[in-house]
Amino acid sequence: xxxxxxxxxxxxxxxxxxxxxxxxxxxxxxxxxxxxxxxxxxxxxxxxxxxxxxxxxxxxxxxxxxxxxxxxxxxxxxxxxxxxxxxxxxxxxxxxxxxxxxxxxxxxxxxxxxxxxxxxxxxxxxxxxxxxxxxxxxxxxxxxxxxxxxxxxxxxxxxxxxxxxxxxxxxxxxxxxxxxxxxxxxxxxxxxxxxxxxxxxxxxxxxxxxxxxxxxxxxxxxxxxxxxxxxxxxxxxxxxxxxxxxxxxxxxxxxxxxxxxxxxxxxxxxxxxxxxxxxxxxxxxxxxxxx
Length: 291
Prior knowledge:
By secondary structure, the protein is an alpha/beta fold. The chain is 30% helix and 21% strand.
């Protein structure tokens, strides 16, 4: 899939002895080949350049490629990764040293489900700094014509925009929608429109910002600057689905992902998920209209 954004994932081919050394030491200095310039927390798939089956998945930490631990029975809140990019996403989502995770990619790749699963597990984790889960997204709709003024208070107006979250919470509960209320209460979930977050400061929170591909630079900054001490933020979006009149290069998401200061920061991990796991129909539409 063609892309103009940094994907956070790279495949390199090396000699077999390099892979042997990686497995023996569980790490490999990035200086092993001067031709590669790596970004911090970049995921690197190392393959045998002779055509053999030897390979490894690593993450750049400091000056090393660190071998990822890939337990075959990994399940986060009951969700198992279905491809290598989902493995990488869980690695970043569960690592407390990474404070900012951006997940991009086409519809159906699992961005929201993986993030919610990780958020539930991190709040439950013994000694965790996370006391609550903040869920936010823009109050934007599909198409050129809006819904008009919605009745009710802020919560009632925002409810129609929360279907992506509610569907995924229900999925984590085995499809039982009646349990959604219990989950919201247990994990102290708060739903806040991005349009109303200015001035907020969220400490000790696992913050999830979805559908941010329509935000410009100033709006994107407003999201990131809400993060307080003890918090982590996960920012998600599909840059091919920009319903509002904004160019890809003018979105805050695109600028942040591709800025060298983000790529060089140990606080940031950016991963593009590309394989749709939702359905064959979803994959076909994403393939045809991916721009």
